Structures are given as C-alpha cells and as structure tokens.
Amino acid sequence: EKMAEVDELSKPMFAGLSDVSISGDIPVEGEINVPVGTPSHDDEYSTLDEPVKDTILRDLKAVGKKFVHVMYPKKSSTLLRDWDLWGPLLLCVTLALMLQGGSVDSKEDGGPQFAEVFVIIWFGSVIITLNSKLLGGTISFFQSLCVLGYCIMPLTVAMIVCRLVLLGGSGTVSFIVRLIVVTASFSWSTFASTAFLADSQPSNRKALVVYPVFLFYFVIGWMILTFSPSA
Amino acid sequence: MASPDDLKFQEFEEATDLLLADPGASTLSMSGSSSTAPAGATGDIKLDMSDDEGQEESSELLRGEKQTSGFWTFEYYQSFFNVDTMQVLDRVKGSVMPLPGRNFIKHTLQSSPDLYGPFWICVTLVFSLAISGNLSTFLNSLGSPHYHYRPQFHRVTIAAVVIFLYAWLVPLGIWGFLTWRQREERQQSGYSFLETVCLYGYSLFIYIPTSVLWILPFEWLQWLLILVAMVISGSVLVLTFWPVVRDDTKVTAYATVATIVVLHALLSIGCKMYFFQTATLTQVTTLAPNHTAAILPSKTH
C-alpha cells in the first residue's frame, strides 16, 4: 500500500515531463566497452587448437584432483564449482562390472545385474539431489550429482579389496574382513558426501538430507558385501 | 531462506484458526491482516519477505488455499517438502502411537501433508524387506550343506513394485470412494488426496522395525509381530477415517473400515510370506526345483 501511495503522489509530479521535447543530441554518459577481439586474447581462452593429449590430460587431472578431495574431505568450494561427471561415470561402470561374475545362475536369486547397479546409482543420485533441492537446498543439480558420484570411490576401493579377499577363500574370516572393509568405506562415503552437501541446507533440515545419502551408500555397501563368487 | 517461510506458514495456520474462532480479536502479526481492526500501527507494515511469492502465499492462506504455483513449476512441488526434521520425527511418532480421539491428519499433520515422509518411508521399507528377507533366508539355511548364498536381488524390484503400488493406489481408491460418498450424501469435507497418501505413507513406518525383527526365526514371534504391527498401524488408519465415515449409512461405514483393515492385513501377511520363507522351502528348491517345491509350502504354512 505504501508503494501504491508513493506512485499516486509521483504521478502528477512527473506528468509534466511528457511535454518536454527531446531535441538534438543528449550526450550519453558512461562508457560503452566493445570488446575488440585481439588474436592473442583468443588463443589464450580457446582450447580448440590445442593437441588432444592436452585436453585429455587436463580432464584427467581434474578428475584426479577430485579423487584426492574425496580421500581427504574438507570443505572446498572450488571442488563444487568445477563439477564434472566423468569420475562418477568411471566409478559407476567399474563398480557395476565388478559386481558381475557372481553366482552362475544369475538370472534368479543372483546378485544385481549391470543395469540394476547403474540404475540404482544414477537414479538414486538423481532422487537424492531432487530431494535436497525440494527441501530448499542451495546446491545445484549437477554439483550434487558430482559429489554423490565421486563419493562412491571408497566403496569401489572396498569392492576391489573384497574381490581380492574372496580370491583367498570365502569362509567366515574372509566375511568378517569384508564386513569391516565395507562398513568402513560406507561410513567414509557418507561422511565425505555430507561434508559437501550438508552445508547447503538450512540447519533444521540437515538430517532430512543426510538420511537418504546414508541409505544410498548403505544399499551400495550391501550389494558389495553380498557379492558371492560362483561356486 | 526456507526458515522464514516455514514460520510464516505455521503462524498463519494458527492465526486462521484463531480468527475463525473469534473474528473480533486483535492480532499482533508482522503482516497487514485486512480482516481485523488493529491499532493502526501494524496495518501498513509491508511483509519483509525476500520474494513476492511469500506475500501471495500468506494472503491466500487466509482464504484457506495453499498452492499458488502451477503444477509445472518447481515451487509447487517444494510446497510438499516443507517440513523440518522435528516435524518429520513428530509425524513418525504419531503414526506408531495411536490414541483414541487423535485423528492423525487433523492432529499430527495439522492438515499440511508432506511427501518427504511417505516417499522415504516407502523406499526404506522396500530395502528393509528385501535385505531382511535375504538375511532370514540365509540364517535359516546355515546348517544345510547344499545351500549356497544367493543375494536374491530381484526381491528389491518386487518389493518396490508392491510397496509403491500399495502406497499410491490404495489411498487413491479410498480417497475416490470417500469423495464420491461425500458428494452423494453432502457430508462434512473429507480429506484431500495428498493427506490420504501422507497418512498411508506414515502408517507404513511400523513395518520397518517389524521387517527387521522378522529375521528372528521363531514362527510364533513373526505372527505376533504381524499382529502388533497390524493393530498399531490399522488403528491409526481407522481412527483417522472413522470420523469421516461414521455419518454415512452403517453398512457403508463398516464396510469401508473393514476394507481398509483387510487390505492392510493382506499387505503385511503377503510380505511376510513372500520375503520370509521358512527353511524347508529353500532346501527343497535347491534339491528338486520342480513340482515338489509347490506342494511343500502349503504343508509348512
């Protein structure tokens, strides 16, 4: 209402301005900068002309840097800014491939199929991201996918360790070792991803966002732990 | 960000109720409420919200409407996730402690349903059923030398289909039926579709600890657990639906309540029987995967 009142008052005041005719040139103040493309400038920012090896190495370095960040999770906004999905894809495919080759009759009663692992990881990540955004989170969609995907890394490492342990035998001792490894890596994954994700939520909803992440890594950990090689 | 919105939401719920009770009462609020006669000072205060949508929302709240955005916008769906941790915990508590006279929708939900609880409770239930069932099969067959552990991952898919169909189709049916009866008989307003879905979602919570406890291999314990879970969960449902249904004809009222209870019972018994099969069944399937497998379950159950 206050704004409406101000408008009412201002109308008769400025109405007279419409009678003013604009003749000639009125000097425009301020500067207009038109970027003049200098050849040297373009070369610096354009990556079209560099050799392919440089492009690939740069992406690999970015992926590797993020892996290091997951190993030692501490809050760093640069990680979130430069998101990429290569790492998650690589981890997901590795994990799904290693979960194959289980019990022989894998059609029924077997472990998850390749497609099932893929769907759980990607669909699960999307749903957790949507959940976080619907609860009012400030993190962007792909940043969240990136974080969730990269934090699968400890679980992938655990899968490799489990397969190695299973080579030695599948008795009770190997089960206990695998249980410890999987539990440790699943807690690490949850801790690492909440370190990045929880900060973007208002404090009264943090638990609501952390729980689905916990469930997600728990299910992946379960798939790893119950992997049983063919008899 | 989200917290001022939350406070606004709840504040206006209570304010609306109080205003309806006593229209002449003076209100002391941060917004300019048009229906009261405040002492002049609060009348022109602008809402200090960061976006205009908050203004629209609160004024429409006074008229009793909740959603202002169309269903294609993100904000529409955000309104269903407008809950805090404490609120979700309270709702879960309300679903496991049915007290007579406490209508879950009116009392615990306070007519602001959310989709967070139902969705994540269903997901958790799916995985807890599949994982616990797998564990119980494994533990039951530990002694048998022929048994080779199988993850039985296809159970997750089956559990997901069953639980999500139940959590969406049954409320749809009940809501449709009740709305149709209410229109026919011109009774008091029933519950909205979302409130029914929310109610059913939270009522499934009791099955999560029940499914974990079903791992213990005592048949009598498993049936006792089913009974307890049915009583608790069923009474939450019945206590909520009874006030809406009792004004109807006796036959319809009892039939509706009976249907709700029977469907709920079918769900729990079906889950228990499918996911938590006893030891003899799995032994038979590994030895003779043919017709004998079909005969034995009827003997053991």
UniProtKB/TrEMBL annotation, chain A:
Yip1 domain residues: 73-223
Membrane disposition: Multi-pass membrane protein
Family: Belongs to the YIP1 family.
Domain of life where this protein originates: Eukaryota
Name of the protein in question: Protein YIPF
TM region(s), chain numbering: 83-102, 114-135, 147-169, 175-197, 209-228
Pfam families according to UniProt: Yip1 (PF04893)
InterPro entries in UniProt: Yip1/4-like (IPR045231), Yip1_dom (IPR006977)
Major subcellular location class: Golgi
Keyword terms, alphabetized: Membrane, Transmembrane, Transmembrane helix
GO cellular component: Golgi membrane; trans-Golgi network
Protein's GO biological process: endoplasmic reticulum to Golgi vesicle-mediated transport
Subcellular location: Golgi apparatus membrane; Membrane
TrEMBL record, chain B:
Record's subcellular location: Golgi apparatus membrane; Golgi apparatus, cis-Golgi network membrane
Compositionally biased residues, Low complexity: 24-43
InterPro entries (alphabetical): Yip1_dom, Yip5/YIPF1/YIPF2
Transmembrane found in the keyword field: yes
Biased composition (Acidic residues): 50-59
Residue span, Yip1 domain: 96-268
Xref: Pfam families: Yip1
Full protein name: Protein YIPF
